[in-house]
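Note to self: user wants both folds in one dump. Writing first protein now.
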Amino acid sequence: MIFEFMKQHSTEFTIDKMASVLKVSRAGYYKHVSKKEAVRLLGDKQLLDKIKTIYRQNREVYGSPRIYRVLKKQGEKCSRKKIAKLMKNNDIRAKSVKKKWKVSDKSCKDLTRIAPNILDQNFVAQKPNEKWVSDITYVQTKEGWLYVATVMDLFSRKIIGLSMSNCIDAQLICSAFDQATCHRTPQPGFILHSDRGSQYTSHTYRQTTAIYKVFLSMSAKGYCYDNAVMESFFHTLKTEHIYLHDYQTRKEAALSIFEYIEVFYNRQRMHSTLNYLSPVEFEQREGLA
């Protein structure tokens, strides 16, 4: 206790003076400080080893917030600030590559084929199969573009439909929708939101979705915020995964993207909106999986 008092007041008084007044030896104080520092350094090393393990296990895309959450689940008592400091000092940072260019799809000019914006940026769902969102993105390979269509259930943020092709047509999005309905059993009247691209306003898509008595919803022209959750997913997919690879063929890209979504994104990657659970964990906790 005396040595701790001396350490706490070392900026106010000299060690010599405090040792004399408190009748303790300077050598005893420095031995105490050295021993405590050694214990702290050992604790930091052990914590750093755990951070590195979690970092590697999660494809090196986790920053301090998510690594802190994993450690907390494991029962580790540490602050997020401490985790961030150790990561910074050891040059451990979330892998992410950003690019500024974006390819845009042409929207439909026939306003009679455009559905109203029923979703209206309300991305919260109270139950599964209440609100789905869908979109298409582009992936560059040495062989040419690979087009990726996805369907997400807003309740758990899980990707329930995935389709990839070298053709950007209505069949691409219909295949993603068909896969979603195979994985789920939606009741008539759920909302399916998308942009107003030509694929989503096509007769083929309307016919495919009509079987399930879906309420189609579409974003305003050129307004990405109306489908922000899906835009966010594609941003994550590209910056954490796609941009880290140099795909030679469409098949290579397709296998890589499928593995990322099904193995990592749906089952492992923590989502802040799900209280740092993965979509599958969230559904299991809700008794749905």
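First done. Writing the second protein, which came from a different request thread.
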Amino acid sequence: MMTLAFPARVLEANARVYRRTFRGSVVSTFLNPVLFLLAMGVGLGKLVDAGSGEASLTIPYLTFLAPGLLAATAMTTAAGDSAFPVMAGIKWRKTYDAVLATPLGVRDLVGGHLGWIAIRLVFVTLVYSGVMAAFGATTVVEGLVSVLPAVLTGLAFAALVTAYTSRIKDEQWLSNLFRFGITPLFLFSGTFFPITQLPGWIQPVAYATPLWHGVSLCRGLALGVEFGVNPWISVGYLAALVVLGSVLSTRFLTKRLVK
């Protein structure tokens, strides 16, 4: 039976490791949001705002883009922390075997892992929301409110990617995940343009992606615009994916690690 104290031990271990390795994430945490908003929001945004026609936006492109990038950043952060680090714990460094040699179980391992990613997501998205406000894309309060759905979006991906990584044996499948999964989602789930601009046959696929629901929530809360779908549907959908991914992660890791 899992108690909160046991996952907290896994979370503490991750925090102790991160205390010595955090410098490697400084660029992605602080510099990436600035560069993205400068290049895409300010640079490309001038061209988009100068356009006209049916596809033109009613708000500045920087304002439109920033909340979408917030959700997308949560996705990429969570996926990155649930891919190669999990494979390292299973296959390369075998730290998961060491954890399971203690009184901790697989549920504790998964709970602590996802708990640490949640903390990471809160920190990363808070930084991003501050950058959004500094660029004038949204207010400080609206930026802070949009952190919550961004974290939920990231946790959905963290749980699902952890389950995926727990299942595969060859790390080449992790590269395929980012090449054929995460990157297309980043580009075609409403982050950079409304998905109504996609061909009609692919729009239902885009609506079904977790990132689209995260973008819809972040954009609706940060900008006060209409949600793409009832926000409680998006919250329920993302929460269900967190639960599903957690259950599958526990099942796959148990089958793989517990002899």
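Dump finished. Worth passing along: The chain has one domain: 25-46+56-257.
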